[in-house]
């Protein structure tokens, strides 16, 4: 593979990843709206988009592995391809989380409406902003923007812990509201996972741009997909 073709292949790989990122970000935005207005047709769109996200994940992985096998890239090009493979996996999981939330919204729509002591739209908007910002940092190769996403994760974690406490109390004290509270609790957990995946992506951007490993950047970070409500 000539150097020109290799550079073009890297650009093509980046473009594929950005298409997938757009679908994942859109899925989160849609599911926020589905929860807010209880529109099940939006849930259908989210579930269908996951099929496209899964297909892109396979295509991107194969393209990245082909580049590794054929070119044996060095230095920043190698870091870029490795980061793409890892970001690809996290974007697919963002799609999974959006689908999971849409399924919870469907269940809640069938139940009697109750007031719950949790601001899910606010938590969702913050998680979605993390996804948007980590993708923007990838587009611009901006390590400082990526690092700012790591700080935002603290706020989502705090909101998830507060939701866990308040919603488990509802389940213990208000039997009639327990099913709705349980679904809301699982939505919060999925949003916390979205924030974790955005954090992972931000860490990968820093690794690609600066060659620095910033995983486990804080003592409360239990690693990818490992955090549980306190």
Describe the structure.
- This protein is mostly helical and 230 residues long.
- The chain is built from 6 helices and no strands.
- The chain has helices at 3-37, 40-71, 75-109, 120-140, 143-173, 178-210.
- Helix 1 (3-37) packs antiparallel against helix 2 (40-71) and helix 1 packs antiparallel against helix 4 (120-140).
CATH topology: Methane Monooxygenase Hydroxylase, Chain G, domain 1
Secondary-structure element pattern, one letter each: HHHHHH
Structural class: mainly alpha
| CATH architecture title | Up-down Bundle
Biggest beta sheet attributes: none
CATH class: Mainly Alpha
Low-confidence stretches: 219-230
Put simply, the count of helices is 6
Q: How many domains, in number, for the residues?
A: 1
State the share of residues found in helices, binned by percent: over 70%
Tell me the span between the first and last alpha carbons: 52 Å
* Gyration radius from CA atoms, angstroms: 19 Å
Count of DSSP strands: 0
Mean pLDDT: 92
Shape: elongated
CATH superfamily: Phosphate transport system protein phou homolog 2, domain 2
β content, as a range? under 5%
């Amino acid at each position: 593979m000539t150097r020109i073709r290799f550079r073009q292949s890297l650009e093509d790989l980046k473009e594929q990843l950005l298409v997938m990122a757009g679908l994942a970000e859109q899925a989160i935005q849609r599911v926020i709206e589905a929860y807010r207005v209880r529109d099940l047709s939006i849930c259908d769109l989210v579930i269908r988009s996951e099929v496209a996200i899964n297909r892109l994940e396979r295509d991107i992985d194969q393209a990245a592995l082909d580049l590794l096998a054929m070119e044996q890239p060095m230095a920043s090009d190698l870091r870029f391809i490795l980061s793409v493979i890892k970001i690809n996996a996290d974007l697919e999981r963002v799609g999974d989380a959006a689908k999971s939330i849409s399924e919870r919204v469907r269940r809640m729509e069938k139940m009697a409406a109750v007031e719950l002591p949790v601001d899910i739209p606010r938590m969702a908007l913050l998680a979605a902003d993390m996804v948007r910002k980590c993708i923007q940092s990838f587009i611009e190769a901006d390590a400082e923007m990526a690092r700012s996403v790591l700080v935002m994760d603290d706020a989502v974690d705090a909101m998830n812990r507060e939701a866990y406490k308040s919603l488990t109390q509802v389940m213990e004290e208000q039997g009639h509201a327990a099913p709705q509270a349980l679904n809301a609790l699982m939505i919060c957990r999925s949003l916390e996972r979205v924030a974790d995946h955005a954090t992972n992506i931000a860490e990968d951007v820093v690794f690609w741009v600066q060659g620095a490993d910033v995983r486990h950047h804080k003592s409360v970070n239990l690693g990818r997909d490992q955090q549980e409500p306190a």
